[in-house]
Write a structure and sequence with these properties.
With 191 residues, the chain is α/β, with parallel strands linked by helices. The chain has 4 helices and 10 strands. The radius of gyration is 16 Å and the shape is globular. 33% of the residues are buried.
């Protein structure tokens, strides 16, 4: 219904979610990999059952945000339920067939919080795995600013650089080229 009635670029479908919603975004990324360009789970975990699933996986970029002191969705995972964040990162790097070694660096928020940022990007295939480990962070929808950008803008900037163009069938109409939406009460237009 939406695609037929609105101007939606089908190669740029994204999802984000918090806590259980983050788990849902991981599942969407895996089971709908031919339709979802990227997801940004926040304070959530990848369910262990996905580890052994055998499907025709396409590429889907992952940008996750986890607190190292999250006791609801522990960074270390929960045996039998959730992968640890490092296991999840490795799962997505392998699933997306990213061969370059991840780059890790420490970032500082404008209030002095430290974040361990990891990125494994395959520029040629427009797919990546990015992880923000908020040092001393808890189970939160975060409210930090990096380089003048608030958290929600960081999510959007990370998601919007990825697309699924090669996963879509031919015949994309000209009306599919842009989508206007609202983020933080500012209107944005994506080309």
């Amino acid at each position: 219904f939406l695609k037929e009635n609105l101007s939606i670029d089908s190669s740029k479908i994204y999802a984000t979610g918090y806590s259980n919603g983050a788990g849902l975004t991981y599942s969407l990324a895996f089971h709908l990999s031919s339709k979802i360009a990227a997801v940004a789970p926040v304070s959530g975990s990848l369910y262990e059952y996905i580890n052994d699933q055998k499907i025709d996986f396409k590429k889907t970029s992952i940008i996750n945000f986890n607190g190292e002191n999250d006791y609801e969705r522990p960074f270390e995972g929960i045996d039998g339920w959730f992968n640890s964040v490092p296991e999840s990162i490795n799962f997505w790097i392998e699933s997306n067939k990213i061969s370059d070694k991840p780059i890790v660096k420490t970032l500082s928020t404008e209030t002095g919080e430290e974040i361990e940022y990891l990125e494994a990007i395959d520029i040629e295939n427009n797919v990546g795995v990015e992880s923000y480990k908020i040092l001393n962070g808890g189970h939160d929808w975060y409210d930090f600013t990096l380089n003048g950008k608030p958290f929600n803008q960081i999510i959007w900037d990370s998601l919007s650089k990825y697309s699924q163009k090669e996963n879509l069938s031919e015949g994309k109409s000209e009306s599919d080229s842009s989508l206007t939406f609202s983020v933080d009460q500012e209107e944005k237009k994506v080309e």
